[in-house]
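Please describe our next protein:
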Amino acid sequence: MTKHGTSPTTPTWTGMVPVDDTALSVTDTGGPGTPVVYLNGQFATQGYWRRVIGELGTGWRHITYDERARGRRSGRSADYSFDAAVRDVDAVLAARGVDRALLVGWSYGAVVAAHWAARNPDRALGAVLVDGAFPHDWLDEAMEQRIRRLFRRMNLFMPLLRPTGLTPRMSAAQMAESNIELGRLSRERELGPVLDRITVPVRYVVASGTSLGSKGDEQERIRASLDAVTVRNPGIRISAKVASNHGAILKKDAPAIAGAVRDAAAPGHGPH
């Protein structure tokens, strides 16, 4: 049974949720609708979901948050691991009194959503994975070096942007390690079995073109790995392939993402 925790007239709640050695900045619109938890890109913030939330409207309960050291308010931590990111989903849901939710994740957040749905089959209502969670062996030693060089270059201007919340309060080395860990978790032998275990409806919204740090058709070859996934697990479908690139998809293709959320909602739980 889903606990909503708020009445239809309860105003939006914004506050800090303690977890481990830090606290996360959370926003919960409340209300009786299906809870939808939005999981950000690796170094993004909850504000990126504004257009998707607008497309879905008030019939849903929207819960957004900034991961550790992301945004303006979420605190720094000694642990920026992927496992910590998955634990943070549980911490946010517990703090807001939600037992069951539909997860929507973009990029890094899509991998978090896939793992959480696989680990919590009785609590996940469904998942929408936005241009992420592709099981493909894209990380090798050369790519690791590319990632480290990229973040070292970015470190030249990141301190100027940190007060705005546009870049994390993490070091370049921490950001690089987080990205490398994602590459290891994305290998087919690692992520493929996770996707195979998911028993709730999963809908992918897939971008086109490049992402930060990719070259040529690298990203399209990574996305092609979904073909085998959808054959193995009939509950996983590609809802839309859109023209936007990885970085613009939440802004330009919010209607497609909202449509995937409606499609993934478990029967009887979505707004009419």
About this structure: Residues 1-9, 268-272 have pLDDT under 50 and may be disordered. The two ends are 19 Å apart (CA to CA). The first strand starts at residue 13 and ends at 19.
